Amino acid sequence: MSFGISNNVRSRTVRLCTPELFWGAVRSPHVAAVCAAIRDAWEASKRGEMTREEFEAVKSREKKRLPIFTFHATFADGRRCNAQAMPSGLSMYDIDHIADPRAYFEEKVRGRVERLGIVLAHVTPSVEGLRLVFAIPRGMSLAEAQRWMSARLEDANYDQSVKDLARSSFAVPEDYILYIDEERLFNGEFSENICHSEQSEESPDEPGHDATGDSSTPLRSAQNDMEEDENNCQLTFKGVPYADIIRRWFELNGGEPVQGERNDKLHRLAYHLRYITDNDEALLLQIMPRYGLSEEEMRGLVH
Q1: Strand ranges (E), 195-301
Q2: CB neighbours (10 Å) of residue 75?
Q3: pTM of the entire predicted model
């Protein structure tokens, strides 16, 4: 699954990020100059030549000039907003206000990048933070994945605001990049990952588990719903069965609905499917899984 790139944080227009666009951004003289200005201000503040408030003002102003990546998602109509987001299967994890991000990475992260599913790690433009981009463990939401990473790194003070799908990540110069798995970053099918080896360390009260065994159990599989009507298997979008697309969508969105999230999740599924069904309500009703909802309830939900 892919992610997006945009000119800056003020722009709502997002393109699919290719390797060429990614490397073009991180190797551009503009990005190097902007981050150099931030770094100079940071060093001046450390020497006492600039107050912390003045540094924060410079940092805030300069970051707005940087290109951004949307690692959490691409967007159905090319406009960066949560309602149009199509999850990438990646999550960002920020560790802020650390004295030496490079040393932190070498000591706590470098030897575990594969086990933690990390595909990109870099120093942030502030020079005081570390950003990790990693594959979301199967069945977890963004917030759950970040808590999972927090537990693995024993980091209770991570930035918990990085939760929405439209969240942006500022581009940095190439020499800020500490680790990159280019093949997986651009071509990885993250939703199909087997649980990372470190994920097996989870205790029953951590994300992805439920002590009762009830709330984490899908109400009914999408595959079973699809098998109710064999004709559904013949309905395709560009040759791909809608049933396969729907199964894929669930994989990328935390799994099939469990008790308490059925209506909300089916509504989001219908919202995304409308882009490849020309807003055809009759077709949506035919291909959508029901998870026990009546025909009348499904009509209302789809409408």
Answers
A1: 236-237, 240-241
A2: 23
A3: 0.64
Residue 97: closest CA among 12, 15, 6, 158 = 158
Dihedral class, residue 239 (left if φ above 0, else alpha if ψ from -120 to 50, else beta): left
Provide the CA 34 distance to its chain's centre, in angstroms.
Answer: 26
- Best CA proximity match to 139, nearest among 196, 72, 223: 196
Q: Which residues contact 115 (CB under 8 A, 6 or more apart)?
A: 196, 197, 198
Q: Which helix (H) or strand (E) holds 177?
A: strand 177-180
Pick from 271, 55, 25, 19: which is nearest to 170 by CA?
A: 25
Residues contacting 274, CB < 8 A, separation 6+ = 284
How far CA 183 is from CA of 4, 44, 278, in Å, comes to 16, 38, 34
Output the CA torsion sign for 148, 253, 117, 162. Answer: negative
Instruction: Tell me if residue 282 falls in helix, strand or coil.
Output: helix
pLDDT for 119 equals 97
What six digits make up the tokens of 61? 């102003």
Assigned token pair, 163 = 């939760």
CA triplet 92, 95, 97: central angle to 5 degrees? Answer: 145
Parts of the chain with a pLDDT under 70: 1, 161-162, 189-234, 259
In order, the DSSP letters of 83-133 are GGEEE-SEEEEEE-S-S-HHHHIIIIIGGGTTTTTEEEEEE-TTSS-EEEE
Determine the pLDDT at residue 139: 85
